[in-house]
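Q: Could you write out the predicted structure for this multi-component system? I'm mainly interested in how the pieces pack against one another.
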Amino acid sequence: MSRRALVLALAVTLVAVGCEGSASSDNDRELTVAAAASLTAAFTRIGADFQEGTGVAVVFTFGPSDGLATQIVEGAPVDVFASASPAWMDAIIERGPGVRRRTNFARNRLAVIVPADNPANIYELDDLANEGVQLVLAAQGVPAGDYAREILASAGIADAGLANVVSNEEDVAGVVTKVLTGEADAGIAYVTDVTTEVAGRISVVEIPDDVNVIATYPIAVMADSGRPDIAREFVEFVLGPGQGVLADHGFLPAE
Amino acid sequence: MASSRPSSRTPAAWIPLAAIGIALVALPMIGLLLRAPWSRIGEVLGGEAALTALRLSLVVATAASVLSLVTGFPLAWLLARRPFAGKTLVRALVVMPLVMPPVVAGVGLLAAFGRRGVVGSLLDQWFGLQLTFTTGAAVLAAWFVSFPLAVLALEAGLRGLDERLEDAASTLGASRGYVLRRITLPLLAPQIAAAAVLSWARALGEFGATITFAGNLRGRTQTLPLAVFERLQTDPDAAFGLSLLLIAVAFVVIFGLRGRFLR
């Protein structure tokens, strides 16, 4: 009995492994790209264009750059990573698997976003320090969260501003959601987060250039990618035809 | 009798399948044990952030469990004992939070109790009350997801109860309150405990609805699962340690009550 059981267990395992093997072998038509949440709209479009041109389907996983980096370090099978901060690309180099073909491909600015009816009367950055403002930021460690804290510090309102924080969101998309639904009075997000879909329900309060942060976005092929050639092709595509799409979505070109 | 030769009655194929099943649930926990930052476990678990999150988690889960029992018992009683129109619909509604993705639950809670929600806007207008971003919102989210487990456990218990015992007491002149206190509730104690533990454990692990509806702020809405998630991004070691703490707390409760109420 136990031998039959063992044989069955082996068979189950082999079938499982077999499925895995066959699935990845003819997966040259598919590419996995992990990208910062702030790239969701632009990269979805770029991915569709890339598929139209090459026939390779791009599977995206969007999320906070730090969370994605952690997943990649833990062994998530990702071919290309696009981060909202150089720091999390560095993490992949330091803690594995390493990268190839690293380039900066875009820059982004931050802005204060408020619900269209602006319940807390936020008209400039310093208003975030007003008493009772319900401010939402991305969590510390999330690029947008770190940038936001830098901005509050440069503006000299770190203490009062941070005291108004009612939630540290898991990524910048969470910040936009809380402002969009009117739960929060204000948030700090990327200017590119105010997409045409939400433009009517969110107002933007510009952050002065002298305190604003310009976020640099690096992209790279993961060293352990099983499809390095297609991955490289995708990076080239982002640097080429993708630039127009990124500009349409409010990104600045890389320096 | 049956226990003297159990193996001859167990189909051979079941053993490896059962092994896969148990490995599926055990391996992630073993993985956590191996990855936990044992060299700095005291610093991670004894730290202010961990203790704050643990305390908040215990408060939120306990409050949610109590609310689930108090509101779940009357509903379970109606479902088990009284015929009424639309019972099938009510029963389907009650289990919805179990099958709903937690983030959907969070969006739903926002739509109902958020500042612009159906109920939330009235609360804001009438009392100047805002639930979102408060500990109350975390409790509400946990209550929402743990409520079905309490109702299901209590309803099953009430169905299994011999109503004749209650009838006999009534015939002998006992008031309804007396019957409830002295007959129904004591007989139902194991199911009430099971309902409490199940809803408490579910509330303890709640993440998606909480972060969507209540937000994430240390000391106010950052329960242990949210603390794990936040730490995973800045200090993965600490996240592994906190996960272990969360599992240990839940395991001690479930395991400690196993013989008595859960079989």
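A: Regarding packing and overall arrangement: The interface with chain B takes residues 1-2, 4-6, 8-9, 12, 64, 66-67, 70, 134, 136, 139-142, 165-170, 174, 177-178, 181-184 of chain A (CB under 8 Å).
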